[in-house]
Structure formats: C-alpha cells, structure tokens
Amino acid sequence: MLLLISPDSVEEARDCAKAAEHLDIVDVKKPDEGSLGANFPWVIREIRDVVPADKPVSATVGDVPFKPGTVAQAALGAAVSGATYIKVGLYGCTTPDQAVEVMRGVVRAVKEYRADAFVVASGYADAHRIGCINPLALPDIARRSGSDAAMLDTAVKDGSRLFDHVPPEVCAEFVRLAHEAELLAALAGSVKAADLGALTRIGTDIVGVRGAVCEGGDRTTGRIQPHLVAAFRAEMDRHAREHAAAATTAS
Predict the structure, then answer these.
(1) Considering the entire predicted model, what is its pTM?
(2) What is the mean pLDDT of residues 55-59?
(3) Phi, psi dihedrals of residue 17, rounded to the nearest 5°
C-alpha cells in the first residue's frame, strides 16, 4: 500500500521532504478550495523542486464541474507544472457518461503531453450529500475513460470519515471492481491510523491522508509534521506484516 501525503504549501512540502523515506507520493492540493481543491501552477512547480526526485508529485485539478474542455486544460496545466499523477474530482458529474466524457478529455490532454503520466478518476464516498455519481460507478468510469486509477475521498469535510459513508465491505467491493478493471484503487477521506487494518485487508493500493499527519489532527489549521508521517507509515507497515503473516498461516 502506497502512502500519499497532501501538503498545501511549499513549506509543508519541505516537511514532507524531511519524511520522504516514509511516504510514496506528495499530493498538491488547496484544502480551502474543497476536498480536491486545485493549487496554483507555480506552487506545483515549487513543490516538485523541493521534493526528492524519486518521489512522484500528484496534483488535484479540483472538485470539477461538468465542463470537459475546461477540465482537460486544467489537467494539462497540472502536468506541465510538474505533476505526474493527475487527480480529478468528479464533483459536478451526475451520470457515469458525463464522468467518462470529462475523464476521456483529461486522459488525452495529459497523456499526449506525457505518456507516462498517471490519471486518477476521483469520486466521493458521500456522493449522496452532493448529488454526484455513485462511488461504486468509479472503477468502470476509470476503465472506460482510459484512466489509471479510481479513487474515493469525502466531499464534505465536517469530521465525517470515509467509512462513515462507505463501510469497509463496500470499500472492499470498490477495490475489487478496480482490480478487476486492472486499475489501482485509492482511498482517502479523513483516514486515521485506526482504519489501516481494514484498508490493508481489503487490498487498497494507495491511501491518502492529510489530517492524520497534521498537528492536532486538523487538515485546515494544522501543519504536516514529519514525525507524524513516520508514525503513520510505521502503523501501515505493521498492518502489512500482520496481514502477510495471517495470509501465510491460512495457506
């Protein structure tokens, strides 16, 4: 399971760089513009410069409307700015066909510029609260559009968490559908260390966190702390070892 950490500034990215050995992907977002709020191109560039070269940089394009051309341009801008993982929050798409149209534009725009870029179709565990597409539709949307991964986050940051809206057994179905479509499955949404056992058991490929590694556990007012990143990774590794041991015993 890969660990994706989301700094919201160059200063926080430097904190991530101090903990680089404990994380896998640095994700650029702007939390005050939404769950998957897009940051400025120059911030992406500066973060790419301060993060070790062997760590990929991910960038969110935003909680986007159903405007395929606008979103494709925004996604290309993120790629040009140095991101190799491009995440699109399908906030304004109310049908799978709309979401596929948006993501096809993103895939073409990004991969014509950089073939090895990694495109992530992101939906929301609390989709029922904002009227967007069903979370379990995401893997098929990602497959049909040529994306590389399907992701779930939470749209409304009010203290509720991923498993409050999509319980572990439904997340397991999401992961299964993604893997069946030969996609990576990413899960986020106020994920805490206590959730890592379930996330490991269901085979999550990427776990995204911010609040869990911020001072005071606050994604908005807290700042990422390198020692909290290290502690979170230690818990991930512990669960991975225990899961592997249990699997060996069962076989």
Answers:
(1) 0.93
(2) 97
(3) -60, -35
- What's the 3-state SS for the chain? CEEEECCCCHHHHHHHHHCHHHCCEEEECCHHHCCCCCCCHHHHHHHHHHCCCCCCEEEEEEECCCCHHHHHHHHHHHHHCCCCEEEEECCCCCCHHHHHHHHHHHHHHHHHHCCCCEEEEEEECCHHHHCCCCHHHHHHHHHHHCCCEEEEECCCCCCCCHHHHCCHHHHHHHHHHHHHCCCEEEECCCCCHHHHHHHHHCCCCEEEECHHHEHHHCCCCCCECHHHHHHHHHHHHHHHHHHHHHHHHHC
Per-residue pLDDT reduced to its tens digit, 167-181: 999 999 999 999 999
Residues with active-site annotation? 29, 87
